[in-house]
Amino acid sequence: MIDPIEPPPRKNPLIRTRLPTSPPKARSRTSHAFTRAAAEGRFVLQRCGSCGTYCYPAREACPCCLSSAVAFVDAPRRGTLLSETTVRVPSDVYFRERAPWRVGLVKMECGPIIVAHLHADCEESAGVKMSFQLDRSGQAVAFASPEKETPNMSDDRQWREMTADPKFRRVLVTNGRSAVGQEAVAALKSAGAKTVFVGVAEPWKPLAGEKLLRAQEGIEIVPLDVADEKSTMDLAADIGGKVDILVNTTEYIRSGGLLDRRGTSVARDEIDQAYLGFINLAQAFGPGMRMRGADGVNNSAAWVNVLSVYALVNWPAFGAYSASQAGCLSLSHSLRAELRPGGVKVINLFTGPIDIEWFQTVPPPKVAPRAVATAVVSALQNGLEEVYAGDVAEEIRQRLAANPKAVERELGGRYRS
Amino acid sequence: MQSSTRTPYEGIVMAAPVTIPYVRYSIESAQWWIGRALGALVAQAGIRPSDIDGLSVSSFTMGPDSAIGLTQHFGLCVRWLDTIPLGGASAVAALRRAARAVQARDVDIVACVAGDTNHVDSFRHTLENFSRFNQDAVYPYGAGGANASFALIARHYMRTYGVKREDVGKIAVAQRANALRNPNALMKAPLTLEQYLSARPISDPIHLFDCVMPCAGAEAFLVMRDETATALKLPAARLLSTIERHNAFGHDAVQLRGGWAMDVGELYAMAGVRADDLDVVQTYDDYPVISMMQFEDLGFCKKGEGADFVRSHDLTIDGSFPHNTSGGQLSVGQAGAGGAYLGMVEALRQVLGTAGPTQVENARLGLASGFGMINYDRGLASGAAIIAGPSR
Q1: Residue A149: exposed, middle, or buried by beta-carbon count in 10 A (0-12, 13-18, 19+)?
Q2: Helix (H) or strand (E) holding A371
Q3: How far is B53 from chain A (nearest CA, A)?
Q4: Which residues in chain A are closer than 8 Å to B124, comparing Cβ atoms?
Q5: Which of A60, A193, A312, B25 is the most exposed place for a label (fewest CB within 10 A)?
Q6: What domains can be seen in chain B, in order of their start residue?
Q7: What is the pLDDT of residues B284-338, one digit of tens each?
Q8: Is the preceding omega at residue A100 within 30 degrees of 0, hence cis?
Q9: SS3 helix, strand, coil % of chain B, rounded to 5?
Q10: Range with the lowest mean pLDDT among A50-59, A230-239, A406-415?
Q11: Residues B197, B199: Cα–Cα separation, whole Å
Q12: What confidence tens digit (pLDDT) does each residue in B210-235 have?
């Protein structure tokens, strides 16, 4: 059983901040199928299309019949811990700083033997549930957890290295005016975040729910206009050293593509808010977060982007907006690579149309702001990297995997929706 | 006794056991160590470098070279060439390949050599780049290297057969006693069982004295036909039998036995001897628990009785079961792929009667085994050879 983690003490400014290090990151190209699965929270193994044998580690042919049809498929997660060890003298700096570190050999019910990181409550000869997680190099690793929920389970030291749990962490929600932003504040607080900073642009304007926010302990309303470089830098100068998780809820949604709009002023606003706002945020908060990736219990851990699923494929009814989101998606990939030395995850959460006024004319299903917020917290707690919130986003994901050209034609066919 | 249908190694001998004394760290290259070993081979055998017409090389640290680069580096013009990247099984593999080549007269004199350097950071580089499975699915899990992988095997083995740390420790302690007689051993201080048991844990149940010390060094020997040895007036040992096996028992969930268990009948049948005829045994001791596993798999006792076997024998040079008489890798040091050769070269000295301070009295028949390449969750390569001295 695990003792709950203690709230971290105030940072002592006289003590040097421990710099982040990364676990071994080299992988074969084939092995990145596990990275893909881990990013989405799926558990896959290779399974031979000819003889049905499951295998691991990643292979180029079946070890049973030499067939090359060894596709990665969703696989059963149950296994038994056969043997374990506690590594006390690792040869790598990351693990040396975190030793002792527990690993074990797990025999999967479907066949393969997997070397896995162990949750502290895993016991030898007992059943475990296997998952692939992204470690602080951003690479997939197998993680064995006890089959049943145990007390303080998510406080496990090794598990917490794989996740970005909001518990005891300090979070900046960049747009507190949006419904998603407000729901995110509530969800993060109830997930144990120590402080949630709520960014509000043009603070002289009335803010819905302001009273409720101000009444709660650990919620601080801060001035933030992401489109304004100075505003972003000013806030970072003030709180940049204590943002452990940044949730980018920037929202600027206008309908229309290219031909039905006149001029570029709306497009310019979209770019100012979403794309340049992203850059302003990254330049203001990114370097500090990358520095603080190993700074104790409340180290910097994750950057979340709430993006439209139409970043992945253009929806002409909101064509220019889709393009601004695609730009942000591309930026997120750059940010992901740039934050990786700090072990800071970049989580992209894709939504379909949200049930807010800017999607007023769009027919259901629409995803509730609260569901988006719940998905943000869940992604942080489980250490995911790609999340699809709601039915529309999930459907687009599946359709893109099946035939992206079909999605393009079909979205274009109802652009006047 | 089982019979063997394999072609006997008739008239195939080994000669000129060479050890280039080890150092903990070396600023020299692997090529430097291999060159020293080749020089010592030539000097000891009283031949010219041009008499060597076959070369077999094993090394973890000679990259980007392979054996071909070394021919030009050392001015050797050979007609038979081999690079053997089998880690702890390299010596057995080198010997058996060379033996067949000289037997077929493709080549007359093969220099088998293994050497590695050890810079302060070369061991970590070897760990990081060991194999694709290791890179993908082992090293990112605590970066414990072979210690962690063997800990998982050792713990399961010890639990399955009720083996205690004392039992395993007796092997390490006996080897240290042997090493104190070997001036080339890096470990110079006596080791008691109490010290073994109270050593700091490295990766449970592996503790400090279960681990070998990585070092730099080289080992070598020559393989030829007996008429060549006679013409050169070289004392030589006859090769009686060998076995080699890779990726055996892949369906064992955790490794409880090595490939020896698959071929051990063949090993003794081909040699025409029994396990208890052996005068001296050199097992591959990357961890003492692996030596215990070999006592079972090489037929000195039944599976699961390794601990009993150790309890009822004295494993020192003058004991009832002289084992790893040089001190083994555990006490001499592990010079990379040289570790595979350490036991083979010592066995050769023993049956030639030239082991000096570690000599077992009247040793005529010796066995050396190899074990290597923990590619993922188990050691894949295994092998063994039985050799006989001129007096047998």
Answers
A1: exposed
A2: helix A369-382
A3: 39
A4: 91-92
A5: A60
A6: 12-121+216-231 (3.40.47.10), 138-210+237-386 (3.40.47.10)
A7: 999 999 999 999 999 999 999 999 999 999 999 999 999 999 999 999 999 999 9
A8: yes
A9: 40, 20, 40
A10: A406-415
A11: 6
A12: 999 999 999 999 999 999 999 999 99
Q: Is B131 on the interface with A (CB under 8 A)?
A: no
Interface contacts A/B by beta carbons within 8 Å: 119
Q: What is the pLDDT of residue B131?
A: 92
Residues of B in contact with A104 (CB under 8 A): 152
Q: A92 pLDDT exceeds 90?
A: yes
Q: How far apart are the CA of B4 and the nearest CA of chain A, in angstroms?
A: 30
Cα A62 from Cα A51, distance rounded (Å) = 9
Q: Do B203 and A88 touch (CB under 8 A)?
A: yes
**Is the confidence at residue A137, as pLDDT, over 80?**
yes
Contact A125, A146 (CB under 8 A): no
- Best probe of the A interface among B129, B141, B246, by most A CBs < 10 A, is B141
Cβ of A103 and B143 within 8 Å? Answer: no
* CATH code matching the domain that covers A32-161, chosen among 1.10.760, 2.30.30, 1.20.930, 2.40.50: 2.40.50
Contact B113/A at CB under 8 A: no
| Domain residue ranges in chain A | 32-161, 170-413
Q: CA B338, B125, B254, B372: dihedral to nearest 10 degrees?
A: -20
DSSP B360: P
Question: Which CATH code, of 3.40.50.720, 3.40.630.30, 2.40.400.10, 3.30.565.10, is assigned to A170-413?
Answer: 3.40.50.720
Binning pLDDT at 50, 70 and 90, where does residue A417 land? very low
- Average pLDDT over chain A reads 96
Q: What are phi and psi of B93, to 5 degrees?
A: -65, -40
For residue B101, which of B86, B79, B69 has the smallest C-alpha distance? B79
Q: What is the pLDDT of residue B123?
A: 78
Q: Does B288 sit behind a cis peptide bond, omega within 30 degrees of 0 on the bond before it? A: no
Residue B377 has pLDDT above 70, yes or no: yes
User: DSSP class of residue A271?
Assistant: I
Which amino acid would we find at residue A85? T
pTM (two decimals): 0.94
**Which residue among A57, A85, A105 places its CB closest to the CB of B203?**
A85
Asked whether the predicted pLDDT for residue B237 surpasses 70, the reply is yes
In one-letter notation, the amino acid at residue A353 is P
One-letter amino acid for residue B145 of the chain: G
CA distance A252 to A347: 20
Instruction: Judge contact between B238 and B10, C-beta under 8 A.
Output: no
| Strand positions, DSSP E, chain B | 12-23, 54-58, 80-83, 110-116, 201-203, 206-207, 216-225, 236-246, 280-282, 365-374, 379-388
Distance CA A31, CA B143 (A): 18
Contact A324, A47 (CB under 8 A): no
Measured in angstroms, the CA of A30 and the nearest CA of chain B are apart by 10
What digits encode the pLDDT tens for the residues A224-252? 999 999 999 999 999 999 999 999 999 99
Q: Can you name the residues that pair with B110 across neighbouring β-strands? A: B54, B223
| B392 has a pLDDT exceeding 90 | no
Transcribe A85-97 into DSSP letters: EEE-S-SSHHHHH
Q: Nearest 5 degrees, angle CA A299-CA A302-CA A303? A: 135
Look at residue B146 and give its three-state secondary structure. helix
Q: What is the DSSP string of A316-329?
A: GGGHHHHHHHHHHH
* Residue B115, φ and ψ in degrees, nearest 5: -160, 150
Average pLDDT over every residue of A379-384: 98
Over range A161-176, report the average pLDDT: 97
- ipTM for the assembly: 0.92
> Which among A266, A268, A344 has a CA at the least distance from the CA of A305?
A344
